[in-house]
Design a protein that fits this description.
It is a multi-pass membrane protein. By secondary structure, this protein is mainly alpha-helical. 73% of the residues lie in helices and 0% in strands. The radius of gyration is 20 Å and the shape is elongated.
């Protein structure tokens, strides 16, 4: 009998992660890709509010709030991946996790490894963004206060650590399944 999602703590964390990621993806992250004319004003206000509060150099840069958005084409390519690959995975993974399906493990491994890889450079940008000072203000450089950096890290670090944990976890789960298959095959051959 399959345990419920709440009886599988790590799966429950993954489920909640995917569940909260869907609105964040649709309402904030992907707005850099949406045509401005098709975005309702109240939805367009969400990334504006977020960037004013956090000075996020990535979202702000991709949205064109800080200089030229074409300088963030690399980040927009990550957002495109979020749209065409990650968003469908969120839905499929939530369904598979709810049903206790092991068939979802490989897709979750691919997602998690990809996300860990793309989030690391984002973290590097956040950490490399200079702290606001009279010099950065005079030079009109993108900068963050110490508090904004903490806010940004509290936003980006979980999106790195949870997929990193998922990568390792899913790799070991798949390894165990492969070992069971090898053991079963060996048992059949020795009969």
């Amino acid at each position: 009998m399959v345990k419920t999602i709440t009886q599988r703590p790590l799966d429950f964390v993954y489920f909640c992660f995917f569940l909260m990621h869907v609105p964040a993806t649709l309402l904030v992250d992907l707005q850099a890709l949406y045509p401005v004319s098709m975005t309702p004003k109240f939805i367009a206000a969400l990334p504006e509010f977020y960037v004013k509060m956090s000075q996020d150099p990535l979202v702000g840069g991709a949205m064109g709030y800080f200089g030229r958005p074409e300088n963030y084409v690399w980040f927009k390519s990550f957002l495109s991946l979020e749209l065409v690959f990650q968003l469908p995975v969120f839905v499929l993974a939530m369904r598979g996790l709810l049903n206790g399906s092991k068939k979802i493990y490989l897709l979750m491994l691919i997602y998690a490894a990809s996300t860990t890889t793309t989030t690391l450079p984002c973290l590097a940008v956040v950490l490399a963004t200079p702290l606001t000072s009279p010099e950065t203000l005079a030079a009109k450089m993108i900068s963050v206060t110490y508090e904004q950096r903490l806010l940004l890290l509290s936003s980006y670090v979980p999106f790195f650590l949870i997929p990193l944990t998922m990568t390792v976890d899913m790799a070991f789960r798949i390894l165990r399944l492969i070992q069971k298959g090898i053991d079963a095959e060996h048992t059949v051959k020795t009969r």
